[in-house]
Amino acid sequence: MHTVDLKRLRLPDGARALDLGCGQGRHVHALYYGAKIHVVGVDLGFDDLVKTREGFEHAPDLEAPDQRSFGLSVGNALQLPFADGTFDLIVCSEVLEHIPDYRQALDEINRILKPGGQFAVSVPRFWPEWICWQLEERYHNNVGGHVRIFRSKELRGAIKARGLTHTGGHWAHGLHSPYWWLQCAAWDKRETSWLVKQYHRFLSWDILQRPLLTRVLEKIADPLMGKSVVFYFDKKA
Predict the structure, then answer these.
(1) What is the rounded CA–CA span in Å between residue 189 and residue 195?
(2) Which pLDDT tens digit goes with each residue over 34-74?
(3) Exposed (0-12), middle (13-18) or buried (19+): which is 227, by Cβ within 10 Å?
(4) Does residue 67 sit within a domain?
(5) pLDDT(108) > 90
(6) Contact (CB, 8 A) for 173 and 3
(7) b/e per residue, 54-70, with b = 16+ CB within 10 A?
(8) Of the residues 9, 29, 71, 124, which has the fewest C-beta atoms closer than 10 A?
(9) Contact in structure between 31 and 2 (CB atoms under 8 Å)
């Protein structure tokens, strides 16, 4: 399940990409298998990185090994272990809402992004996220949980203030918002709730099979109630 649209990314052969807050590797894997690039995944959670590594264990031999590689590391977004201007592309998906000092994270992203590089970022969309917060406090009020709800204008402004140019955006995962509302509404029984289980089964089927029906429904649902908002930026050369 990709939140960032890889078709919008510039991925020339041999480019260097970072997935900041990679989790279990959905974007790291997509970048590595989808282009001849060098990709690095960084996350605070070691266990998540172990899961990400497992996604490479049975990888087939790929073309151009001199232009394609991956690396994984535990790291803190507020103090990244990379030199200035290291990466041609940085992806940061569903991460900034977890970081109290997200502006410092943006400073670090800007520092290690090459002039002429591209930055793709996603966060939970304001109003679907707000409903989750209203339905259940424990949805966000826990260790490592969400510390803020972004307004799109606020996030775009903070990134543009660092000299990056906004080049486009979209919403994603419109079919997923009801799932999280159901989870929050039935929080104490969410593991056993029949309705939550059935909706989870529907989403799993959609992700694995990608039938025409759900692709059409998603096109309709994304602008109406997309769970995530995604923005793309260029850094001036």
Answers:
(1) 11
(2) 999 999 999 999 999 999 999 888 777 777 778 889 999 99
(3) buried
(4) yes
(5) yes
(6) yes
(7) ebeeeeeeeeeeeebeb
(8) 71
(9) no
Per-residue pLDDT, 58? 76
How many other CB atoms are there within 10 angstroms of residue 210's CB atom?
11
The span from the first CA to the last CA of the chain, in angstroms, equals: 32
CATH number at residue 149: 3.40.50.150
Q: Which residues contact 193 (CB under 8 A, 6 or more apart)?
A: 182, 186
Angle (deg, nearest 10), helices 177-185 and 212-225: 70
Domain range for 36 is 6-125+137-173+227-235
The structure tokens listed for 232 are 């793309």
Tell whether 141 is covered by a domain: yes
Evaluate whether residue 46 is within a structural domain: yes
> How many CB atoms lie under 10 A from the CB of residue 156?
18
Distance CA 137, CA 10 (A): 39
Domain count, the chain: 1
- Tokens in use for 28? 């790291």
CA–CA dist 35, 138 (Å, integer)? 39
The b/e string for 103-118 (b: 16+ C-beta within 10 A; e otherwise) is eebbebbbebbbeebb
